[in-house]
């Protein structure tokens, strides 16, 4: 059974930074593509960033402020978030997937940006 441990969320003032981490276990992490999603109250879940076949993608509203990365040796993925804005407030989820209906989700970590 694939397990995740997400961390790094919290309360931060506008303009601040947070680094989200997601550690996966019971999986050959290097075989998977990685994604970060977020979901704000009353809104649909949206894709924030992903690394697929070595290519990174960012949601327009976070490009230049967020950086996705991965460390296959430690089975981990990260989301560095800088210049945070109140509209970044959401629950953030890590996700790994590969062809063949292999799609696994973390439990999420809350990020709140408020003064």
Describe the overall structure.
By secondary structure, the protein is an all-beta fold. The chain has strands spanning 3-7, 10-12, 18-25, 33-39, 46-52, 55-58, 66-71, 76-81, 90-98, 102-105, 109-113. Strands 2, 4, 5, 6, 9, 10 and 11 form a seven-stranded mixed sheet that branches. A four-stranded antiparallel sheet has the order 1-3-8-7, with no helix packed on it. A hairpin with a 6-residue loop joins strand 4 and strand 5. The protein starts with a strand and ends with a strand.
Task: Note the main attributes of this structure.
single chain; 115 residues; mainly beta; four-stranded antiparallel beta sheet; 56% strand
Offer a concise description of the structure:
With 115 residues, the chain is mainly β. It has strands at residues 3-7, 10-12, 18-25, 33-39, 46-52, 55-58, 66-71, 76-81, 90-98, 102-105, 109-113.
Number of strands: 11
Number of helices: 0
Contiguous low-pLDDT stretches (5 residues minimum) are none
Shape: globular
Q: Mean pLDDT, as a whole number?
A: 96
Order of helices and strands: EEEEEEEEEEE
Q: Which bin fits the share of residues in helices?
A: under 10%
Name the beta content range.
over 45%
C-alpha-based Rg, rounded: 14 Å
Task: Give the topology, please.
Elements: E1 3-7, E2 10-12, E3 18-25, E4 33-39, E5 46-52, E6 55-58, E7 66-71, E8 76-81, E9 90-98, E10 102-105, E11 109-113
Parallel strand pairs: 2-11
Antiparallel strand pairs: 1-3, 3-8, 4-5, 4-9, 5-6, 7-8, 9-10, 9-11
